[in-house]
Design brief:
The two termini are about 35 Å apart. By secondary structure, the chain is α/β, with parallel strands linked by helices. Helix 4 crosses helix 7. The strands form two sheets. It has a five-stranded parallel beta sheet, with helices on both faces. Strands 4-5 form a two-stranded antiparallel sheet.
Length: about 220
């Protein structure tokens, strides 16, 4: 199935050449000028959540949509340096307090059915690109820390906050492990709106007794 998807995407790329999601410039997914001209994300409601870009910006929304649904995986490489810098800046003293222990990097998982349909998890792609930048080996990639066990409807379908929360209740499971005990855990996602997904993910790993949980998203 993935092989056929790869062939299909190669055909699409040949018919519709790569162009900037902002200005339409040929040969690049998102040019430096367009990404530097995007607005900073407004502060999320929850203090533990951090985001880089404003999701209301048409360029960013188009780029993330292409990453999620059009197999435009190159956007993960584009967004990763911005997230990496944001994470390092936000961690601050945590890097010193951790005493050299790796900080756990956990992409928010997709349900296995959606993962199978899409062929990849965009948050995992971004996480792997961040690891390429981590020459100091600060992060330990631990996607197994969180599993999506409930097939939920897309959050964008719900306008009311209480419906988003209800939709995600018990959507995640964190298997018993000592890996997170006393550690700093970084949750990573592509987009956060009300923060319901990241709040539920954080709640789900609480019993693992991490020292601190911080979340980062490309856009809000």
């Amino acid at each position: 199935m993935r092989y056929l998807l790869s062939i299909f995407n190669s055909i699409i790329d040949a018919i519709f050449p790569m162009e900037c999601a902002g200005c339409g410039r040929n040969g690049i997914l998102l040019c430096e000028t367009c990404i530097e001209n995007t607005q900073r994300a407004p502060l999320p409601e929850h203090a533990f959540i951090n985001a880089i870009f404003d999701y209301n910006n048409k360029t960013i929304k188009r780029a993330i949509w292409s990453l999620k649904y059009k197999n435009a995986r190159g956007f993960a490489e584009i967004f990763a340096p911005y997230l990496y810098d944001e994470i390092i800046g936000a961690l601050g003293n945590e890097l010193f307090i951790s005493g050299g222990e790796n900080i756990l990097l956990v992409p928010v998982p997709l349900h296995k059915k959606r993962h199978r349909e899409r062929g990849y998890n965009q948050s995992e792609l971004i996480a792997r690109e961040i690891l390429k930048l981590d020459i100091a080996h600060i992060f330990s990639y631990t996607p197994e820390l969180l599993v999506r066990i409930k097939e939920t409807k897309q959050q964008a379908k719900y306008e009311k906050r209480n419906m988003r929360i209800k939709n995600l209740r018990d959507a995640f499971h964190a298997p018993e492990t000592l890996k997170a005990r006393g550690k700093v855990v970084i949750l990573l996602d592509d987009v956060t709106t009300t923060g319901a997904t990241l709040v539920e993910a954080k709640r789900s790993i609480r019993h693992l007794r991490p020292r601190k949980v911080i979340a980062f998203a490309v856009a809000h």
